[in-house]
Amino acid sequence: MIASYTDFGTTGPYLGQMHAVIATQAPRVPRITLMADAPMFDPVSAGILLSYLCDNLPDQTLILAVVDPGVGGERRPLMIRGAKLQFVGPDNGLFVPVVRRYEDCLIEAIDWRPSRLSDSFHGRDLFAPVAAALATGKAVAGIPVEPRELAGYDSNHDSNRVIYIDAYGNAMTGIEADGLSDERTISVNGKALRYARTFSEVPAGQPFWYRNSNGLVEFAVNRGSVSRLLNLRPGMPVQF
Amino acid sequence: MIASYTDFGTTGPYLGQMHAVIATQAPRVPRITLMADAPMFDPVSAGILLSYLCDNLPDQTLILAVVDPGVGGERRPLMIRGAKLQFVGPDNGLFVPVVRRYEDCLIEAIDWRPSRLSDSFHGRDLFAPVAAALATGKAVAGIPVEPRELAGYDSNHDSNRVIYIDAYGNAMTGIEADGLSDERTISVNGKALRYARTFSEVPAGQPFWYRNSNGLVEFAVNRGSVSRLLNLRPGMPVQF
Amino acid sequence: MIASYTDFGTTGPYLGQMHAVIATQAPRVPRITLMADAPMFDPVSAGILLSYLCDNLPDQTLILAVVDPGVGGERRPLMIRGAKLQFVGPDNGLFVPVVRRYEDCLIEAIDWRPSRLSDSFHGRDLFAPVAAALATGKAVAGIPVEPRELAGYDSNHDSNRVIYIDAYGNAMTGIEADGLSDERTISVNGKALRYARTFSEVPAGQPFWYRNSNGLVEFAVNRGSVSRLLNLRPGMPVQF
Entry's SUPFAM superfamilies (chains A, B, C) (predicted)? Predict the structure, then answer.
C-alpha cells in the first residue's frame, strides 16, 4: 500500500496530480490518503506526528511524505527502508523523528531524476514516481546516508508542544502518553488539565487530557472545541 | 465495494487510518468515501440521511458507518445484512432509520474484539477490520439482535427537520419528497417556500424547495446559499 | 484511469455517490479525484485550468468533468476522445479550452440515457456510467459534434485573469507561462509583480509571479497568502 502524507490540503489539484502518477505507475497497489493537512510548512511537527501514526499503519506500507516548504532550494530527496515501513520524501527534518523512533532504518539519497522536473512540485514529478517504483518492487538508484547526516538531525526537537489541531478542535501534542500517570496534570496556555480516559467520562464543556488513539497526549472537550476554549495554536508549549 | 460514511471530516489522520486498514485487509475490494462530513455528533440525522443515500448505492455495497459521539462508553458494535446492502457500525441510533426503511435486515452484535482496541478509535480498530472481513467473504462471530432492541428504536425520530447543509449552502431535510404535491408550500424559519423542479427554473437569489437527487425535500437558491439567506441550521424544524 | 474533476467540494455525499458508480461499474480501473473544488459555477475558468492540468496527466486517463451550473436546463452531455485523453461531461463551455488547446479531438453528444435520470445529479446518473463504460472499453452511442458547435465556442474566452485561488492563497491565472520573459512584470489589482523562479528565492512576505508546475503564471508570497495580501479574487483581470 502507498499512503500519502502531505500538507497540500484537500482542495486544489496537487493531491490529485500526485495520486494520478502513482495510480498509473502502480495501478494494482492499494493507495490511500493518510493525511492531507499535515502541519503546514512545519516538517518537524509533521515528522513527530508521522512517527506516531506509523505505529498504527499496516506492515509493508510505503509512506509518500511531502511537507516541503523549501522546494526549489537545496535539499536531498530521500528514500528510507525500515523494518516494517518505507518512506519517500525530502531531507528537511521531516524524517528525523521517524529515524530516531525506529531503529535500523536504511537511508538513501535518491540518485534518479525525471526527464521533466518542475521547480515547485517534486511530489508529483520526483517523489511519486519513486514511490510507485519501490511499491512495485523496482530498484531506484540511491546513495547511502547516515542518520546523523540528515538535515536537522542534531537540532533539539522539543516535542513538548501542540503539533496539530483537528477538525473537532482537539489539540494533539508531541508527548508520548504511555509512560504518564493518570494523576498527572498537564498545562497549556496557563491552564492545568486533568486526565480522563474517554470523552464520555467528562461533563460536556470541560477540558481534559487523554491518551489518543495514536499514543499521544491530546487535549479535548467533550462535545466542544478545546482549541477555541483555551485559545490553542500549533507550536504552543506544553508543561508537565 | 466498501463505502465509508463518517463524521470524521476530510482533514486529520482519522479517515486515512481507517481506510489504511481496509485497503490492507481487503486490497482487491473497491473502496470509496461516501461522505466524511455526515451530521456531526448526531446519529439520528446521520441515520436519516444514510437511509436515503442507500437508494442510490450499488447492490452489494458494504457501508462502514461511524458517527459515534459516545465512543468509549457502553454501546454495542453492530453488523447488519440487508437484501442489497450491508452495514457495520455502532448501536447508537445511527441504523434505526435504515432498519425501519428496509425490511428483512439481519442484525447482529459483533462478538469479536481486536487484540488492541483503543478507547477512542473503534472505526480503525474494530469496525474497519470487521468491514474488511465481511467484504472479503469471511465470517465474523455475532449475536442476533432484534430491531426493537436497537438503541433508540422506539424514540420518536422526527424527520421534519433540516438534517444537513452542504457546501453550496443547500439545506436537506429528512422529508421524503416522492409523495408531495408540487403545489405544496414548505416552511422553515418562518418563511414559506414554493416548489421548483430545478435550479434553472428559478431566478437567481430566490429560495425554493425541490426534490433532491436522493429523494428528499431540499431548500435551495439558484446560484446562492439558502442557508445564509434564511439563516438555517441543522436540526431546525420544517412545517408542511 | 478515471480522474474526476468537479466543483462538488470535498464534503457532502455528491463526490462519493459519483465515485460509487464508477467503482462498481469499473472496479478494476484505478480511480482518482483530480480536483473537487474546480472553479465553482464557472465552466470557463474551470475549463482553462483543466486544459493545463491535462499536460501533466498520464496518457489514457479519462477525465469525468462536472462543473455544471445549468443542470436541469438544456445542454448536451458530451464525450470527447483526444490523442492521449478522453473526457465526459456537459456541453456548457467547460471543454472549449481543451478542444482549442488539443487538436484532433473526436467530439460526440452522448446518445444514451439511464433508466432513472434525476433532474439535478447528472454526474452520478449519466456521466459516471458513461465514464465507466468508456474506461472498460464498452461502446456508448454518440452523435458527432463539430468543435464550432460546442456551446460558447466562439465567445471570447479572456484567460488574462485569476482562475483559481488555492488553499495556500496562491492565485493561478489563465496565462501560459512558457513564452514569457523573466524580465516581465505582471500586474493584478493595481500592483506590478516581478518574477522569481521559486518561493525560496524571495524574502518572506514579498509577492511575486512564477511559472507554476502546470505551466501557468501564478502569483504567490513566500510563506504567506498573496490573495490576502493583494485582495485577489477569482475572475480578477491581469495585465502584462
Answer: Bacterial fluorinating enzyme, C-terminal domain, Bacterial fluorinating enzyme, N-terminal domain
Render chain B in DSSP notation, one character per residue. Answer: -EEEEESS-SSSSHHHHHHHHHHHHSTTS-EEEEES--STT-HHHHHHHHHHHGGGSPTT-EEEEE--TTTTSS--EEEEE-SS-EEEEESSSTTHHHHHHSSS-EEEEE----SS--SS-HIIIIIHHHHHHHHTT----EEEE-GGGSTTTTS-----BEEEE-TT--EEEEEE-TT--TT--EEETTEEE-B-SSGGGS-TT-EEEEE-TTSEEEEEETTB-HHHHHT--TT-BEE-
Give mean pLDDT, residues C190-198: 94
Yes or no, beta carbons of C200 and A41 under 8 Å apart: no
**What CATH number matches the domain at C2-149, 3.40.50.880, 3.30.2420.10, 3.40.50.10790, 3.90.226.10?**
3.40.50.10790
pLDDT averaged over every residue in chain B:
93
3-class secondary structure, C197:
coil
pLDDT at position B102 is 87
Alpha carbons A48 and C5: distance in angstroms, whole number: 33
Which residues in chain C are classed under CATH 2.40.30.90? 162-239
Residue of B73, B72, B69, B74 whose CA lies nearest to B39: B69
According to CATH, where is 3.40.50.10790 located in chain C?
Answer: 2-149
**Cell numbers that stand for C126 in this block:** 449519466
Tell me: the pLDDT tens digits for C96-155? 999 998 878 999 999 999 999 988 899 999 999 999 999 999 999 999 999 999 999 987
- Contacts of residue B223 in chain C, CB cutoff 8 Å? 41, 69
Domain C162-239: top CATH class:
mainly beta
Tens-place pLDDT, residues B63-91: 999 998 877 677 999 999 999 999 999 99
